[in-house]
Amino acid sequence: NDNDLKLLNIYDGMSITTSSKILKKTKELVYVRVQESQSYVMDMDKTTILQSSVLTKSVKANVKYICNKKRYAILYKFRMLDYNPNERLHGRVKSAKLIPVVISLVGSRVKGELIDISAKSIALRVKKTKNMRNILNQEIELIFYIENIRDRGTSIKIQESAVVVYESEPFDDGAVKLVCIFSEDMQNESVIIDYIFNRQKSIIQNI
User: Fold this and answer.
1) Residue 27 backbone phi and psi in degrees, to 5
2) Cβ proximity of 6 and 19 under 8 Å
3) pTM of the prediction?
4) Taking the CB of the first residue and of the last residue of the chain, which one, N or C, has fewer CB atoms within 10 A?
């Protein structure tokens, strides 16, 4: 039963999910129905994620071929994912331009940059100081500026507390990716939601 089969890809940090259907199977290949917006992102990524109620986990597949005219794709090299790709996808977007972020923890202050943001969480790229060595599960203060959707050409200062829930292995330049959950009593949720909604519209228009 593939009636609830969905294909998932990420475009500029936003989840692109569309309904699909298995058209044909061979020993190594699966032919699936694909919608235009999905095929565009799949062609860039050369991968997609399959989700269905009959699958115990999400399945990632490579894209071998896409026929936009007949609206199908050929997938191969399937593997189960050990994580839930939906965990931070709802309303998550990348910024249109670089957004610097000031991160403070116990008197230590360092500059990073925003990777993506949702109404409840934020991902950052940052080079940690010695005082920030054990930052996982710690509360930090964040300060950054985002575009004021209601007054074009101006910015709004966002100052919020957040808890670090994930830290990546260091990149080649020594920086790490941090994923942080905003405090429940955050002050700027409505401003961030407006910003996300506007970015989503811009992203969709570019697909």
Assistant:
1) -60, -40
2) yes
3) 0.62
4) N
